[in-house]
Structures are given as structure tokens and as C-alpha cells.
Amino acid sequence: MQVGIVGKPNVGKSTFFGAATMAPVEIANYPFTTIEPNKGIAYVRTPCPCKSLDVQCVPNNSACINGTRMVPIELLDVAGLVPDAWEGKGLGNKFLDDLRQADAFINVVDASGTTDIEGNVIDPGRYDPSEDVAFLRKEIALWMREIIKNGLSKIARQAKMQGSKPETILQERLAGLNVTEGQIKDALRHAPLPADPTNWDDTGLLALCTRIREVSKPMIIAMNKADISPAENLDKIMKMGDAAIPTLAETELALKKAAAAGLIDYVPGDPSFTVRPGVALNEGQKKALEYMAEKMKKHNGTGVQSCLEGCVFRILDLIAVYPVEDESKYTDHFGRVLPDCMLMPRGSTAKDLAYKVHTELGDKFIRAVNAKTKRTVGADYVLQDGDIIRIVANK
């Protein structure tokens, strides 16, 4: 799965990305530092069944640290978005096209209000950062609308003659964005269009695309620079509807570097850190760590890991499932215990998991076995978080 890091220029997107992935990226205090998209791997935490089963797991596609499974997700950090990007302003459609395959967005906002709508540094108090959230939502909806409109006249006339359903036409137009027909049907219930596609207008399409974005590419807001942000700014953003988390991306990046240098003990997602015994810090390091500790206490951590996990487990509502080949030993065909952890949408079935593992396994599905209960289950068995499942298929 892929999560897009989005926002206007110069709000800390690349810092957030670097903190989450520890991948080297260019970070600077001016707009459009990022031109080409940065890709990296971050991790979300979920309990590993190894503890409750009293077994020693041998992870393959993820890591296990003291009974916590670290499941990889791909992050994509793209160029900053400015108003009217859908018309080509700034890096315009390049920014938007880079986001086609994203499953969800983390919208990084400069909650301190020290950058204007185009990412230029300004004096504090002169800009309302909640405007960043509103304009980004609209820009993405406008971009989707233009994709639908491109060549629509000819398609609409043909569809009218053939009696095609609106969701079929729209799904064809938005297929490159990983938008499903089910998501489009949901949007049409909230923002219905005329049955005759030749009568679709800009206003109706924009309302529809607003809803399509909400269901197909949900968003969580990283209220970055929370350490210097007025409380009223955070409160205002949190009232805008999307999940919003105060974040300290610079602090997270600094802590990970300090931990890598052996100065501190810090586990990403923890609300605090400790200086390692015997480490001699200079005055600058002491003051910096004291400042970070104070701000982390106020905000219950840096918020970076909370954004990642909120995106995966809250707004995408994914669960962790462990496919195995031997339900009694919880192993794959190499004998590895609980080797793979797969993230599945809540409500997925055993057969959905089979297809996730391999298309042929799904095509030849016979039954599944719940390794925890040792019970045989059918194709329509609804997976539960933490399930360990053996798929039985025709050879």
C-alpha cells in the first residue's frame, strides 16, 4: 500500500518523510525543495501473535520487536501543491499525477501559520493554517474533475446511446487513480448526477469529486510545527472534519539521529526518550533534548508514528492477518513461524486473503483453516485482526 505525503510547499513534508523513513531527502526552508517524488518505507506497529502463542516468530516481510510487529508501508513525498495547481500552476499536474496510486494522504500543514498559501515564510499570526486544509481538498477534487472531463463529450454521447450507467462511465475515467466502482456508487448517493451524462456540469462534477476523494483517498492531517503553534490554530484544524494529530517532525528526525548515534534510547511512537547511561552531552545537546522532551510531554510524543498508524488503522481501517501453510506450527513451506503479516481492509474474507497472497491461490480456493481455533472456514469467512489463516487450494 502507498500513502502520499501532501501539502503546500515549505511546511515540513520532506522532514516528515525523512523522520518516518530515515531516507535521505533534501530539506530546506524555501518552497519547492522537492521536485521529483521521494519514495521510502515506513513501519506501522501491530501486536504479533508470537507472544500469546508462546512461539518464536521468524518474520519475512516485516520485523518483530519484543512482540510488536513492524509492518512496512510505502510513503511518497511529492512536490508542494499551490492554489490552482489543477490548472498547471507551480508544479501543477506533475504533483497531482504523482499521487494517482496513493491509497490515502497525510496532509502536512504548518500549524504555526508562519508560511503563506504558497509556502513563503511570513511573520507569525498573519495566516490561518486551516486554509491549507480547505484549499488542498478542493485542488484534488478539481484535478479529479478535469480527468473526468477530458474527452467526456464524446464518451457521454456514446454512453447516452448505449444506456451506460453513470458509475460505469466514471470508473473508466478514474481507473488510473485506483478508484473503484463501489466508491463511485457511494459518491453518487451523496452527490447524484443526471442520468443523461450529456447534462453533467462543472458544479455537479465538483461535488461528486469531493465525495470521491473522501472515500477513495481519505486524509489525515499532520499539524506540523505543533511546538510553536498557537493552541487556537490546532483547535481550528481539528474541527475541520478529518482526523488531525499535532506533529513535531523535526523532533522525530532529531531523536532518530540521536538514537542511531547511541546518545539516547528512543522507540518511534513512544511519548518520551531516555539519555543512555554514561553518555556525555554538550550544553547544546542538553538544551535541545530538554526542549524536545518538554514539547513531547505536552503533545504525547512527536505524532509522526501516530499519523502513520492513524492513516493505516483508523482512516483506512486495515487489519493485520498472518497467512501460513501449516496451521499447527504456524509456518510457511520454509518452516518459518508467522513469516508474513498482511494488511487487509476490515471486512475482507478468507478468499480475499487468498487473492492477496497469490492470484492462483484465489482462483483455486477450496477452504481455509483458522489456525488459532483449528476450525475449517469457508470463502466468506470474515477475517479478524490478528487472524492466522491457512489457505487450502486445488493443486
Mind explaining what this structure looks like?
With 395 residues, the protein is an alpha/beta fold. It folds into two domains: 1-37 and 78-316, P-loop containing nucleotide triphosphate hydrolases (Rossmann fold), CATH 3.40.50.300; 319-393, Beta-grasp domain (Ubiquitin-like (UB roll), Roll). It has helices at residues 13-21, 50-53, 92-97, 130-149, 152-162, 166-174, 181-190, 202-216, 231-238, 249-260, 283-299, 304-315, 350-357, 359-363, and strands spanning 2-6, 38-47, 63-65, 68-77, 104-110, 219-224, 243-246, 264-265, 274-275, 318-324, 342-345, 365-370, 375-377, 388-393. β6, α9 (231-238) and β7 (243-246) form a beta-alpha-beta unit. α6 (166-174) packs across α7 (181-190). The chain is flat and about 80 Å long. The two termini are 29 Å apart.
Which terms summarize this structure?
alpha/beta; Rossmann fold; 5-stranded mixed beta sheet; 7-stranded mixed beta sheet
